[in-house]
Amino acid sequence: MSFKQLKVFCGNANRNLAGEIIEYLNVPLGKAELKRFSDGEISIAIDESVRGADVFVVQPTCNPSNDNIMELLIMIDALKRASAYRITPVIPYYGYARQERKSKARDPITAKLMANLITTAGADRVVTMDLHAPAIQGFFDIPVDHLPGVPILAEYFKNKGLDNVVVVSPDHGGVQRARNLAERIGAPLAIIDKRRPEANVSEIMNIIGDIEGKQVIMIDDIIDTAGTITQGAQALMDRGATEVYACCTHPVLSGPAFERLENSPIKEVVVTNTIPLDSEKIIPKIKTLSVAPLLGEAIQRIHEDLSVSKLFS
Questions:
Q1: Among 48, 129, 194, 239, which one is least packed by beta carbons within 10 Å?
Q2: What DSSP assignment string belongs to 235-299?
Q3: What does pTM read for this prediction?
C-alpha cells in the first residue's frame, strides 16, 4: 500500500463529478483557485501543500474544450512545480480523440498532440474512459488506465428486465463495443452498415442481423449531433424493431442533438456523466448514470498499487 498522501483536485469542466468522486473516496477536494486575467488568460493557484503527495486531477476535456484543456495543463504544471510525488490526470472524456489518424493528405493527428501536451506538462500517468480509438493509449509514453463504460450500461439494462433484445452497433467501428454489451446482457448482435460522406453526416445502407420484432439497444462511445443514432433508430423501426433504446458513455450532444433525440423514435437515451449536461436542455428521455464509483475505485487502486483491470474483467 502506498504511504503517500492522496489528494484530488479538479478544474471547472465537471465539478459535480469531482464532488461525487471525493465523496466516494472520503477525502476533501484539494484547494485551488481558478481565475481569469483581464485578457482572458487562465490563472491557477494551488492553495495547499502537495509536496510528496499522490495527486489526481479530475478534468474532462469537453466543451469548452480549449479552455478545459488549458486549465488541465496549467494545473498539472503548477502541481509539478510544487513537488507533487505523482500527478495523474483523470480525464473521463478525452477531447480531440476523433482525429487519431490521417484520413486524407495534410490532416493533423490531434489525439497524439493532446497526449504530447499532457505528458510534457508533467503528468506521470493518465486515467480515462472509452477512448474513441483504443490505439490512442499507445500515443502516450506514460501508463494509461483505460476504463470501459460498457459494464455500467450493461448493469442498467440487465436490471431493466427487457426481453427479446438485440444489441446494435451503429457502424462497423463500434462492433467490439456492441459485442461486449451483447455478451454481458446475453443478447445477439446486429450491425448498421452506413457510409459517412462528410463529418457529422451519415447515410444508412443496410442492417446486418435479425432485428424484426425485437427490442433494440444501440450503443456508441459518443453521441455528438445525434444524426447517426437517430437515423439508425428510424431505420431499425422501419425494419420491424418494436422499441429502440440508445446508450453511450460520452454525451457530447452538440448542435441539434437534443431536438433530434426528442423527435426520434428512441424510447430512452442512457448516458453517463463523463460530460456535464446543461440542465436547461435535458429532455425526459435522457437517463444519466454516474461513473464516479468506477473512477473513485480506480483512483484508490492506483494509489494503493493494486490492479485496475479487475474493475472490468
A1: 48
A2: HHHHTT-SEEEEEEEEE---TTHHHHHHTSS-SEEEEETTSPPPTTT--TTEEEE--HHHHHHHH
A3: 0.93
Please choose, from the candidates 152, 149, 183, the residue with its C-alpha nearest in 3D space to the C-alpha of residue 166. 183
Q: Which three cell numbers stand for residue 208?
A: 446486418
Q: Looking up cell 484539494, which residue turns up? A: 30
Instruction: Count each helix (H run) and each strand (E run) in the chain, helices first.
Output: 8, 14
Could you give the 3-state DSSP secondary structure of residue 73? helix
CA 45, 68, 135, 6 dihedral sign is positive
pLDDT averaged over every residue in the chain: 94
Q: What is the CA radius of gyration of the chain?
A: 20
For 149-206, what is each residue's pLDDT tens digit? 999 999 999 999 898 999 999 988 889 999 999 999 999 999 998 666 566 555 656 8
Best CA proximity match to 100, nearest among 148, 134, 150, 62: 134
Task: Give the active site residue among 4, 35, 102, 194.
Answer: 194
Residue 80 a catalytic site member = no
Residue 103, Cβ density class (10 Å: 0-12 exposed, 13-18 middle, ≥19 buried) = exposed
pLDDT in tens, 16-44: 999 999 999 999 999 999 999 999 999 99
State the residue for C-alpha cell 469531482: 18
